Amino acid sequence: MSGEMDKPLIGRHLDSDGSLAEAPSGAPKVGILGSGDFARSLATRLVGSGFNVVVGSRNPKRSAGLFPSAAQVTFQVDAVSSPEVIFVAVFREHYSSLCRLSEQLAGKILVDVSNPTEQEHLRHRESNAEYLASLFPTCTVVKAFNVISAWTLQAGPRDGNRQVPICGDQPEAKRAVSEMVHAMGFMPVDMGSLASSREVEAIPLRLLPGWKVPTLLALGLFVCFYAYNFIRDVLQPYVQERKNKFYKLPVSVVNTTLPCVAYVLLSLVYLPGVLAAALQLRRGTKYRRFPDWLDHWLQHRKQIGLLSFFCAALHALYSFCLPLRRSHRYDLVNLAVKQVLANKSHLWVEEEVWRMEIYLSVGVLALGTLSLLAVTSLPSIANSLNWREFSFVQRASAWPKPTSHKQSQDTHLPALASACSPVPVSTSCGHTEYSSWTL
Ligand SMILES: NC(=O)C1=CN([C@@H]2O[C@H](COP(=O)(O)OP(=O)(O)OC[C@H]3O[C@@H](n4cnc5c(N)ncnc54)[C@H](OP(=O)(O)O)[C@@H]3O)[C@@H](O)[C@H]2O)C=CC1
Ligand SMILES: [Fe+3]
């Protein structure tokens, strides 16, 4: 690598509006091939982070006006001659059109930012980055930035999506790209060699992978409880007393069903921790893997907990709407008429009044507590808390002694010390992953 790349690449950070006049002279030079949406956002951020940007376009005249004035827009062949790091911001099907630049690109670092579509991902056995590497055997290909959208690049990194997975076969090249990622305000995550690029390219194709089972579980529970409540509140009065209560189907039965689902889901958040602890006690060791079903269950606690919160919140909303129903108004009027006919002037059942007051108060408090748990399970909030603060919020009693994150990752098992309290999820994921929604 040239001496230029050996200098630290850390530049200035971009303001949220993305505007910054001029990259400092002598700043590291970076090339971008392509002048599309991604190239434009990338150029803006790179210029703002203190890099000298040169963009290679097939039609520089047309594209120049779309880039920040500090970026130089020129023909592809001119753009790739001096920078050591070149971003390839074109689609896979156009990679081969860049082969005529092979000579100028020899020995340089090519950053593959591309994302395949789902069909492309299934169709090609080799990743886009590996394909690029096969077209340019004299270059070093590094996969990066594919998980960051053009919009995020432009708007600036936010807590939730700051991580940029990087992979490549040459540590030096990866280091150079990682430094650039850092300088741009993102967090590089080393994913290993270029062989992992297929995995990295699959990341943006995922659609809520951790939510499928918990959502099906919640739906299944909803259907079961709804059927039960329908039989109890609607069908049974109809069959036995010929009373037509079918109007209850859209609101009342749903409202009775939601808290049942919420309670069961909440208990399913805590149950696997207890089971895991019992299993460890029975085995007398923490150095054995949990069965797969328990492992998966532990990993899905956060989603199950959030779905429980969702059902509880819906229940609260439905409850607020109950008095708005016309059936409720008719019931009230009928009750009043009945009272008048019975010559009663003051209806007040002390026990009923107290029961409702306490019921509402406890319901509001429970929803408030559940909201707190849900909020602290968000990565951005959880990351801002230390372990003690987190466990204080997530459970009522204090954890005997926090198992270090490292330990739980290494052993792939929770500590026995947590036998009667939460068990960290036994995966190699982050802090929130193994600790969320634990009692
Ligand atoms: N948009 C996004 O949010 C993200 C995009 N990406 C990846 O970035 C890459 C570029 O995406 P994006 O900028 O959105 O796409 P665009 O369609 O907006 O831009 C593609 C660019 O490729 C250039 N190009 C070079 N050679 C050819 C060719 N032979 N035929 C057609 N175009 C060519 C064109 O620039 P010119 O005419 O100047 O040569 C064109 O502007 C893709 O691989 C995409 O997967 C990754 C993450 C997010
Ligand atoms: Fe309730």
UniProtKB/TrEMBL annotation:
GO terms for biological process, alphabetical: copper ion import; iron ion transport
Domain Ferric oxidoreductase: 260-399
Subcellular location: Endosome membrane
GO molecular function: cupric reductase (NADH) activity; ferric-chelate reductase (NADPH) activity; metal ion binding
Cofactor: FAD; heme b
Domain of life of the organism encoding this protein: Eukaryota
Membrane topology: Multi-pass membrane protein
Residue ranges constituting the Pyrroline-5-carboxylate reductase catalytic N-terminal domain according to the UniProt record: 29-116
Swiss-Prot/TrEMBL keywords: Copper, Endosome, FAD, Flavoprotein, Heme, Ion transport, Iron, Iron transport, Membrane, Metal-binding, Oxidoreductase, Transmembrane, Transmembrane helix, Transport
Membrane-spanning segments: 213-231, 251-279, 304-325, 358-378
Family from the record: Belongs to the STEAP family.
Reaction equations catalysed: 2 Cu(+) + NADP(+) + H(+) = 2 Cu(2+) + NADPH; 2 Fe(2+) + NADP(+) + H(+) = 2 Fe(3+) + NADPH
One Pfam entry name: F420_oxidored
Full protein name: STEAP3 metalloreductase
Annotated InterPro entries: Fe3_Rdtase_TM_dom, NAD(P)-bd_dom_sf, P5C_Rdtase_cat_N, STEAP_metalloreductase
Lineage: Eukaryota, Metazoa, Chordata, Craniata, Vertebrata
Gene Ontology, cellular component aspect: endosome membrane; plasma membrane
Principal location class: membrane
